[in-house]
Design goal:
It is built from five helices and no strands. It is mainly alpha-helical. The chain has a domain at about 30-105: Up-down Bundle (Four Helix Bundle (Hemerythrin (Met), subunit A)), CATH 1.20.120. The longest helix has 19 residues, at about 75-90. The radius of gyration is 15 Å and the shape is globular. The structure holds flavin-adenine dinucleotide (FAD).
Length: about 120
């Protein structure tokens, strides 16, 4: 398929995860109260506005059961990793090791393969 075509559900998902995990990766370790609130609102709105109806509904339910932990970069990245793993489970995909989430999305793998 050409690169300038509308996204299907998987392409949209892959690119959305890139944005969401990268946002969590660059979130500060000591956020202001305002930033915490903004980030929580952002994820709540993803659950309402994400342009795939079943994805948005299930995401909103996940957030309801376990609200975003916006207290720090590490907490937010771990929370988002947990959410993504819930969706991986639903889709029969392998689980990601959340202890390595900053290697994947912020620092690069410890083996130097991203350097
Ligand atoms: C909010 C949201 C809800 C979605 N809901 C649905 C749905 O209900 N039904 C549906 O069919 N699709 C859904 N998707 C799309 C689905 O999650 C995948 O994006 C899509 O199937 C493409 O999968 P992929 O194999 O390319 O890898 P993706 O799941 O897109 O993952 C991209 C990369 O993220 C990394 N990764 C994987 N798991 C984790 C994790 N737990 N933490 C950190 N990094 C990780 C891996 O390196 C992987 O290559 C949703 C996407 C989003 C963003």
């Amino acid at each position: 398929m050409a690169h300038d075509c509308p996204l299907d559900k998987d392409q949209l998902g892959f690119h959305s995860w890139n944005l969401l995990h990268t946002m969590a990766a660059y979130y500060p370790e000591n956020p202001s109260e305002r930033l915490k609130q903004d980030m929580e609102t952002f994820f709540l709105l993803i659950g309402r506005l994400y342009p795939c109806e079943t994805c948005a509904r299930d995401f909103a339910q996940l957030i309801d059961s376990k609200p975003p932990d916006t207290s720090s970069q590490s907490a937010l990245s771990r929370w988002l990793c947990w959410v993504h793993n819930q969706i991986n489970t639903k889709l029969g995909k392998p689980l990601f090791d959340c202890s390595r989430v900053n290697e994947r999305w912020r620092d690069g793998w410890n083996d130097g393969s991203c350097d």
